Amino acid sequence: MNARRNTLTPQAGGEAGSRSITRTDPGLQPLSPRALEERKLIHRNDSVRSQADAFRGLRTKLLALGRDRDFITLVAPVQAGCGGSFVARNLAAAFAFDNSRTALLVDCDALHPTQHKALGVDVASGGMMDYLDGSITDLAAIQYQTGLPRLHLVPSGTPRETAGEYFSSSRMRMMIDSLRGTQSNRHLILDGPPTLDSPDARILSDLADLIVVVAGYGQVTVDSINDAASNFDPDKLAGIVFNNIY
Description:
Layout: E1 7-9, H1 33-38, H2 49-65, E2 72-77, H3 84-97, E3 102-107, H4 115-119, H5 128-132, E4 144-145, E5 151-154, H6 164-167, H7 170-181, E6 186-191, H8 200-205, E7 210-216, H9 222-229, E8 237-243
Parallel strand pairs: 2-6, 2-7, 3-5, 3-6, 7-8
Antiparallel strand pairs: 1-8, 4-5
């Protein structure tokens, strides 16, 4: 895993589940530290302690902003290549570190989904877009174990050129409400598409309680960061994560 440090700069103004409908595989074993590193996932060993501490710090700040409720966080990169999916995946892992919480990572990049590949998850049963278009009716069928305890994945599913009409649909809102309400102390992390490339991230922000914008350090300008942040409700904007700081 490359050494990375992620910092959250808040903008001005701004612990067991009761029931489960997720897919379970009793034969699935927890991933080893080496497998976690291959998936660019933080863990508790010294080799990635600085990254793990950074994401724990980000989790703590979000919990304070969310007043410790079961909030939904949208992670939205400024543009492609900023590492938004890396941040979303590890933020979800940081929530799952807490034995009293569970995390659900939802891959909302309908055109370039990456989370199932990064996590090594076989998504033969389909994903979110297949549920939204009615091809799949069982919500449990699109929730997959990841090999990291208390972390599940909803993959994007069949790629779509445009997803705005799905994200703004009543079925999407009902899906998110159902996923949120499945368990107490469950945190949903939405891995959003690049903010400046399409309106999808802004549409998804209506479903989120908090928004984290990811900027690739040295990759984007201050103007681009400001343009990306201006797409979102300032009351929801938690701050900016600068990724790829060595």
